[in-house]
Each structure stands twice: as C-alpha cells, then as structure tokens.
Amino acid sequence: MTQFRSPRALARGYGASGAGTGAFFWERLTAAALIGLGAVLLVQLVCLSAGGVSLDEARAWLAAPTTGGLMLVFFLIAMINAYLCSRVLIEDYIHVPAQSLLALIGLLVVAVGLGSVATVSVLRVMFGQ
After folding, report:
1. What is the three-state SS of the chain?
2. Residues 107, 111, 115, CA angle at the centre, nearest 5°?
3. Smallest Cα–Cα separation from 119: which of 77, 87, 64, 57?
4. What is the pLDDT of residue 19?
5. Distance between the two ends of the chain, CA-based, in angstroms?
6. What is the pTM (predicted TM-score) of this model?
7. I need a surface site. Which of 44, 48, 87, 124 has the fewest CB within 10 A?
C-alpha cells in the first residue's frame, strides 16, 4: 500500500518540529559566552599564578565579588551549555522513547546537580565558610 503514497506523504512527520532554531541559537550563545568568560578567567588565573600563590591568596582572589561572580556565571553557563548540547545528542541518537526519556531525565539531574555543587562551592568560598 505504501507504493501508492507520494514521497512527500512518506516523509510527513519526520521533519523539523519548529523548535530547532531556538535550541541552535541558545547553544551558540552559551558557547560564545563561555569563550569570553573562559578567556577572562584564564588571563586572571595566569596573572595570579605567575608569582606563585598561596591558598589564602587564591581564596581571597575567588572571594572578590567580580571574580566570584564571573566564576559563578561561568559554571552556570557551562552547565546550561552542556545540558543543551547533550540533549540534542540524546534526541538525535536514542530512538527508543523510554530510553530517551530516561536519558533526558538523568541528564537534567546531573546538570542541575553539578551546577548546584559548583554554585554552593563558589558561594562558600566567597562568603568565607
């Protein structure tokens, strides 16, 4: 019976869902933000470690509002970018719906967990606990 269906009818339902451009845009935006933030933090770390630094000096550097804020934003954007890019891979390459759903839930739990741990860690150093 499929021999009487047109190629367009056979392809219907397999096309883009209309949400691909938004995901593409946010992946690229977070990647660009990571490049900028990573470069700034890398330059600061190189300048900090040039003369040898003690643990107390490193804590003081991270406790500064600007540096700590940049580090927080860097970690959060890194987790968002990792989630978005990994989600696309899961959606593209896992074709069993139950496995895809479990993988997406696991990915979300891991991304939120790592983001939370990074945020709490930086905030503890910033506020001296």
Report:
1. CHHHCCHHHHHCCCCCCCCHHHHHHHHHHHHHHHHHHHHHHHHHHHHHHCCCCCHHHHHHHHHCHHHHHHHHHHHHHHHHHHHHHHHHHHHHHCCCHHHHHHHHHHHHHHHHHHHHHHHHHHHHHHCCC
2. 170
3. 77
4. 62
5. 71
6. 0.79
7. 124
Q: What is the pLDDT along the chain (129 residues), one digit of tens a residue?
A: 557 888 777 777 665 655 667 888 999 999 999 999 999 999 988 888 887 888 888 888 889 999 999 999 999 999 999 999 999 999 989 999 999 999 999 999 999 999 999 999 999 999 987
d(CA 39, CA 45): 10
Spell out the residues 6+ positions from residue 18 whose beta carbon is closer than 8 angstroms to its own.
Answer: none
Block residue for tokens 């991304």: 111
Closest CA to 93 of 82, 79, 104: 104
